[in-house]
Amino acid sequence: MHAIKIYVGILLALCAATTAGAQTLTAYTEEWAPYNFQDGRDVKGIATDLLREACKTARVNCKVEMVPWARGYKIVRNTPDTVLFTTARKPEREDHFLWVGPILSRSTWVFARPHPADAAGTRELNKLRFGVVRGEAAYQDLLNAGVAPASMLEDSSNASILRLLLSGMVDAMVDTEVAMAWALRSSSLDASTVVKHSNLADEGAYFYAFNLKSNPDVVGRLQAAIDKLKRQGRVDALVRRYTQP
Question: Where does this protein have coiled-coil stretches (predicted)?
């Protein structure tokens, strides 16, 4: 009996030491279904679930917090051992973060309220008033496409921008096909509520963006975990879970 008590004591001490020394990572994300979104008290989505699985594989404690995109971006730029997702890896952001991924390829589209010219995408982008998420990559993409800053109305989330579009306060917005289909379906709106005007950007991919002073060992372990999960088909499985009816 005495030997058993000693053995149990050693196990408890080892567990306590492991927990005390475990790396804790705080992840910040926005409301952008089906990649990341609030479901009751939980945060779910393709990228959220993948991050949690990667953290489990890499033996990293992960805490996920939902915040407006611009706030999360600022926090992660200034706070070690934090990560921002789902983040487009763009040339102007390259030196701002440590990158883990890719998670998914990136292809964004301009969606507009129905208009006779939009089926062929003949209305010039610089003639449209856009709603954009504050701080998102699409803002620079639109600038590169010739849209003036004065023609862009910023808000905190894609859901807010969609409401602006449906109310007529803006003419168009930028999103992925997957995210727009989810947004319309979850709002019980027909697919014809908006039209796909034109392809805006196909460059790069979506990643997890880590603060530059984050623990390099943790970043490396998480990259290895993501690579392993992708080889096992987990990304494709998560996409199917969240996109197929």
Answer: none
User: What superfamily would CATH give domain 108-201?
Assistant: Periplasmic binding protein-like II (3.40.190.10)
Q: If DSSP codes are grouped into helix, strand and coil, which group holds residue 128?
A: coil
Q: Which residues pair with 153 in a beta bridge?
A: 131
**CA-based nearest residue to 155, from 43, 167, 144:** 167
Average pLDDT over residues 158-183: 96
Tokens of 165: 């579009």
For strands 195-201 and 108-112, give the pairing: antiparallel
3-class SS at 22?
coil
**Phi, psi dihedral angles at 167 (to 5 degrees):** -85, -10
pLDDT in tens, 197-209: 999 999 889 999 9
Does the pLDDT of residue 211 top 90, yes or no?
Answer: yes
> Chain-wide mean pLDDT for the chain?
90
